[in-house]
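Trying the structure run again after the queue cleared.
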Amino acid sequence: MHTIRSLFASILLLPLLAPAQATQTIQAIGSATVSGQPDQVKVDIGVTTTANTAQEASNQNATQMTAVIAQIQVVLGSSADIKTVNYSITPNYRTSPNSSPVLTGYTATNNVEVTARDSNSIVKVIDSVASVGATNITNLRFSIANTEPLQEQALALAAKQAIAHAQAIASGLGAKVGSVISAQEGVSVVPIDRTLAPTASATPVLPGPVQVTANVTIVVALTQ
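Done. Tokens:
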């Protein structure tokens, strides 16, 4: 009797041990771009000096850069946002065919990144530092200090688009969208307009909007 009960229990368990049917899924991608007005502007300002020795090039560079930084602080205040982004001293050589390179001197370069809260202030900096020794003014760029709100907005719009795409795909397959199984995000922040236009008075700086683009990739289950 004990053997018969065990066999009966095994037969009842067979349906429970059968492999479950794999869930059918589809993948969809959504993207969205939102724009915001920049609230800060950055520019790289540098000094390049050349001399016969590395020490002379370094000393000349230090003197000019000290004057440049002092002028920036005059315009933006003593607490101006200034940070060094590059410093180098490199040898210079004269080359000619069929002869070894000849050392002719050294070049020292020091570049700082300056951040201001408005374009008018950065224009004053640009127009004043050349007169005190700046030799390089490059890489003008506009940005937003805190892009988190724009990122969240773009992600929400991209997620909605991904769901809409998934629903369209499912409809074409004669199915319906079920639950979201996974989601991945990607965000990029890009300034889309940086313009300098010539003028007889001050350097005009024309800031453009900053674009935040989000991509959301989802995997959803299909139901009948």
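The domain at 20-37+147-223 is CATH 3.30.110.170 (Translation Initiation Factor IF3). Worth checking whether this holds up in the mutant runs.
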